[in-house]
Amino acid sequence: MSVAETLSKQLYTVEEYLALERETHDKHEFYKGELFAMAGGSPNHTTICMNISSELHQRLLPKGCRAFNSEMKIYIQPFELYTYADACALCGTPNFLKETDAIIDNPSLIVEVLSDSTEDYDRSKKFLFYRALPSFNEYLLIRQDKPFVEYYAKLAEHKWLLSEVEGLSAKIHLKHLGITIPLAKIYANVVFASAS
User: Fold this and answer.
1) Which residue, 119, 138, 102, is CA-closest to 45?
2) For the chain, what are the domain ranges?
3) In Å, how far are 23, 53, 63, 180 from 94, measured between CA atoms?
4) Which has the closest alpha carbon to 52: 194, 192, 189, 191?
């Protein structure tokens, strides 16, 4: 998803924000009272999001774990932030907030499919925000222009290990969730621009 321009200069309460999303069915990131409209993705972005959500669901279901697509909001209390990821997952009980069943604050894995307009944000500030979640242990950044995934695994407080996985024959092992996903599944039906 892309973070578009600020919806308005007006500051909103959390209650107003949640009511607006229920009424309009539009997605917005809420940060300290400001709303930022979330724009739609490209065909490759949409396909990758569907593929990764499906793969997570299929592989985690037998383990009693849960996967969510981009409809699930994530609440990050220290930053007063409600946001959306392209996918997320957890083992154990989802901590749904009282306002709605579409908001959690305890994902273990968070997935972002990179776009030109959001790549810097996903790599820096949004990753910083996510790291404030005690449950957060794994982060996937998925390119849509070629089969390339960056995998961040939490080793200890303030210590993350980056692994890069490239090529359709490669697989990514999610250590904390205990599953392995072939990149060929993540990129199924994705059309890459031919190099010229």
Assistant:
1) 119
2) 42-73+85-186
3) 25, 16, 14, 22
4) 189
Q: What is the pTM of this model?
A: 0.91
CATH fold of 42-73+85-186: tt1808, chain A (3.90.1570)
Residue-by-residue DSSP string for the chain: -EEEEES-SS---HHHHHHHHHHH---EEEETTEEEEEEP--HHHHHHHHHHHHHHHHHHGGGTEEEE-TTSEEEEGGGTEEEE-SEEEEES---B-TT-TTEES--SEEEEE--TTTHHHHHTHHHHHHTTSTT--EEEEE-SSSSEEEEEEEEETTEEEEEEEESTT-EEEETTTTEEEEHHHHTTT--PPPP-
| Tokens 């500030």 -> residue | 125
From first CA to last CA, the distance across the chain in angstroms is 28
**Within a 10 A sphere around the Cβ of 102, how many other Cβ atoms?**
14
**pLDDT attached to residue 7:** 46
CA distances from 54 to 12, 20, 40 (A): 34, 29, 19
Low-confidence ranges of the chain (pLDDT < 70): 1-9, 99-101, 195-196
